[in-house]
Specification:
The chain is built from 10 helices and 8 strands. It has 248 residues and is of the alpha/beta class. The structure holds 2-phosphoglycolic acid (PGA).
Length: 248
């Protein structure tokens, strides 16, 4: 399977028209585009080669009295194939591992591929607890799952301190996002081993300030099957060049 470039648009852009324009500029076979919910049908129509993803879902997979929620089945019916679950911006709003586990199960139950996001915050990394934090995040979810086969589940390791939009209490940081991909490989290897000891097979993505400058580096690591890109995926020209970089 080819390595994937995943475009997490977060709560952008402002209008459907802009979303269609951005989708057309991001349309390549190894790309997955994650627009906000309202733009899913229009983006689905605009994409000819890329695959459609959603940024979240509710843990009840079918239907029900859950005002404001969106189900896995509903997403599937508008052409969604991948879904991001447990992104650090949702965890920051209070989403816990147990809820994340239920959402991953809901996705798998209808055949959506979950992108399970894990990653430590700066304080945890500085305290030497990154491995422990990520281990717990991953183990809680995997312990509740039926056996998953290769390609059915992606784990996106996103050190929260390397995400371009993470607010930091002080402007000073002991670690920079540039160092993050190299620092991540060891942790991804650890997770690969952990996952294999419980007979699971997952793919691993890296996320956190991936851009035109470092995309080749990220794609160069054998341990990494692709990248989850936020900020740079909103810049049509830059993202277009990133697609070219990883396709050659
Ligand atoms: P970033 O976001 O590329 O802007 O750091 C990545 C993410 O939050 O998924």
């Amino acid at each position: 399977m080819k390595k994937l470039l995943m475009a997490n648009w977060k709560m952008n852009p402002k209008t459907e028209k802009e979303a269609i324009r951005l989708a057309k500029a991001s349309d390549a076979a190894n790309v997955v585009v994650y627009p906000p919910f309202p733009f899913l049908p229009a983006v689905a129509k605009a994409l000819k080669k890329a695959t459609l993803g959603a940024q979240d879902l509710f843990w009840e997979a079918e239907t029900g009295p859950y005002t404001g929620e969106v189900s896995a089945r509903e997403l599937k019916s508008v052409g969604v194939e991948y879904v991001i679950i447990g992104h650090s911006s949702r965890r920051a709003l209070g989403e816990k591992d147990e809820v994340i586990a239920k959402k991953v199960q809901a996705a798998l139950s209808v055949g959506l591929v979950p992108i399970l996001c894990v990653g430590e915050v700066l304080e945890e990394r500085e305290a030497g607890r990154a491995q422990e934090v990520v281990d717990k995040q991953l183990r809680t979810v995997l312990s509740q799952l039926p056996l998953v086969a290769h390609g059915q589940l992606f784990v996106a390791y996103e050190p929260v301190w390397a995400i371009s939009t993470t607010p930091h209490s002080s402007g000073l940081q002991s670690l920079s996002a540039e160092e993050a991909p190299a620092k991540s490989v060891e942790l991804i290897r650890y997770m690969q081993h952990m996952v294999s000891t419980i007979q699971m097979e997952t793919k691993f993505l890296y996320g956190g300030s991936v851009n035109l400058k470092n995309v080749q580096e990220v794609f160069g690591y054998d341990e990494i099957d692709g990248a989850l890109v936020g900020g740079a995926s909103l810049k049509a020209a830059e993202f277009g060049k990133m697609i070219k970089e990883v396709s050659t």
